[in-house]
Amino acid sequence: LSERQARAVLALTLGRLTRLERNKIDAEYEEVIKTIAYLESILASDRKVRQLIKDEMDDLTKKYGDDRRTEISEQEATELSAEDLVHKEDVVVTLTHRGYVKRQPQRVFRAQKRGGVGLKGARPTAGGEAPSGTREEDYAEHLLTTHTHASILFFTQSGRVFQLRVHEVPERERQAKGVPINNLIDIGGNERVTAVFIRPESETEAHYMLMVTKNGYIKKTALREYANVRRNGLIAINLQEGDELDWVTPTTGKDEIILATALGKAIRFSETEVRAMGRDTQGVIGIKLGKGDTVSGMGTVTGDGDVLVVTERGYGKRTPVAEYAMHHRAGQGVFTLKVTDRVGKLAAMRVVHDPEEEVLIISASGMVLRTAVGAISQIGRQTQGVIVMRLAPEDPGVVAIAPVGAIEEGDGKE
Questions:
Q1: Which of 64, 100, 165, 183 has the lowest CB atom count within 10 Å?
Q2: At a CB cut-off of 8 Å and minimum separation 6, what does 314 contact?
Q3: Longest dimension (CA), the chain
Q4: Residue 133's closest CA among 141, 122, 142, 143?
């Protein structure tokens, strides 16, 4: 206020100031009375209520009347399964000789060149518990490359089969021992898992399961006979005394089969020579074994490829499938490896088709080597092979080969 205005305010009497405030209060009171009368008239008339709602909705439409940004569609309700809530991931499932199982992402393994020493897995130490907790003399016996939505069929030495979803296998670190398999499936105290394979997701992939025992018997059974595997398992094959089930693979019914033995023999024959049988049967002779010999590997041939063999002491080679002539089932086979004290017996065999395919080679002490098939020399049948995996003197030897898949360029692998 200016000085003149301030003086004018000071000249006002208290009565005039009071009247100004009273006029303001009266004006506010009259406004409230009018609002009350208006609201009471609305509440007393349904027509006015509906009109007010309509007017307010028109105002909202004008203000927010843009197109809906989400779409509402009708569809049939579906039930969610456990797999729907599990991320699909490529994994490696490992089962040890003493029955400890674990799951690991495939990315934890890196590619190495032939002659590497491998990555350290769950391995024992002399005279007691291993740092990872694995018991002395335990080692990884089975390796499966698969994904978390698949199912695994576990076959025991007594000829029974069990089923487990891959995502139900606990994930553990590479140096951890895993969990006892009998915590996940209902196997007996005297049973041990000797063969595992990933169940085909449809019968268009495979129609049969082909089983091979350590004494050379072979059996083919339709996959549909194992559609519903109970928790306490099913009988997969009848066995003679002293024999056990060691190898299982899915087939189409028209594949070619190769069996390899510990003393370096191999036989190739058509799967059509093995007729399909029911679950509760024994099978027929696949290969005649010499004294002290047992089956060390089996594979299926679906075209050109190589027979990849690895010995107990880490020697290996690839030999073209063409060098193995077709024979009839139940023959003695031909030499596929020159077995000597230096290289040891034939420990594992696989049929491979792509030089860029990768395999995991694992030793009894838990060392794992990931290498491309093409890095392993291709030589003839009656040879010893070359060093594929360098083993420590105290390592009992190689026990398994498992496929990984083709090497991808630019993935940072060594």
A1: 64
A2: 361, 363, 387, 388, 389, 390, 391, 397, 398
A3: 133
A4: 122
Q: Give the tens place of pLDDT for each residue, 42-90.
A: 999 999 999 999 999 998 888 887 777 788 888 776 777 777 788 888 9
β-partners of residue 319 are 307
For residue 276, give every residue at least 6 positions away whose Cβ sits within 8 Å of its Cβ, in sequence order, or none: 208, 220, 221, 222, 253
Return d(Cα 57, Cα 392) in angstroms, integer: 83
Cα separation, 302 vs 70, in Å, equals: 50
Q: Under a CB-based contact definition with an 8 Å cutoff, are residues 360 and 146 in contact?
A: no
Query: What's the chain's average pLDDT?
Result: 84
Contact (CB, 8 A) for 333 and 259: yes
d(CA 240, CA 65): 80
CA-nearest of 151, 262, 226, 227 to 196 is 151
Tally of CA atoms within 13 A in the half-sphere of 347 that contains its CB: 27
DSSP 108: G
- In terms of Cα–Cα distance, which of 369, 372, 371 is closest to 399? 369
Q: What is the DSSP letter of 134?
A: P
CB 179 within 8 A of CB 101: yes
DSSP per-residue letters across 161-224: EEEEEGGGSPB--TTS--EEGGGTS---TT--EEEEEEPPSSTTT-SEEEEEETTSEEEEEEGG
Give, in order, the Cα–Cα distances in Å from 210 to each of 18, 213, 259, 275, 377.
108, 10, 12, 11, 29
At 155, which amino acid appears? F
Residue 296, Cβ density class (10 Å: 0-12 exposed, 13-18 middle, ≥19 buried): buried
For the full predicted model, state whether its pTM sits above 0.70. no
In the chain, which stretches have pLDDT less than 50?
A: 118, 123-136, 405-414
What would the two tokens of residue 161 be? 């089969």
